[in-house]
Amino acid sequence: MSSYPPTLLRLIKQFARLPGVGEKTATRLALHILDISRQEAASLSQSILDVKGKIKLCSVCFGLADTDSCKICTDPGRANGVLCVVEETDDLMALEKSGAFKGRYHVLHGALSPLNGIGPDDLKIKELVDRIRKEGIKEVILANNTDVEGEATASYLAKLLASFPVSVTRIASGIPMGCDIKYTDQVTLKRAMEGRRGV
Questions:
Q1: Who contacts 129 (Cβ-Cβ below 8 Å, separation ≥6)?
Q2: pTM > 0.85
């Protein structure tokens, strides 16, 4: 790789810093940039600068927006009164792609992790409580991850919201499609049995 010109090496190193991009992929991307027109390269560069300059957190749900409120929060067709709490914006995007939820969201921006020094004040929990009070929320769906931190966060929120006049539910978790039961861990099997429903 050292035979590449220094300018190209710098670009390869920048691409390699991206998550999930190794040296080979970074090299392919850099060589692709070299092959595209100057106009396409300028457009890509401007898109990166626009994202850095214009994207911010929605003032309501703390998802991503390029205005004060995101498209989901300003959509009058979304179900009011139902709030789905997620850990990160990519969790929100995954649920949106599924088409399974038509209500509103609240992004915590993390999960409780005392070992890493992340407590309730480090997440958007106060803002969640404020929304429940102001927006007349009837149901809060906890869509935290099923790892230790996600479970701890869901448990904390369930206890915190027990005194509010809202129904607090947790998304179901269980055996994924195409998975053999014999290869499924005990916790997942337990949850699948507990969350069973009629057919």
A1: 160, 161, 164
A2: no
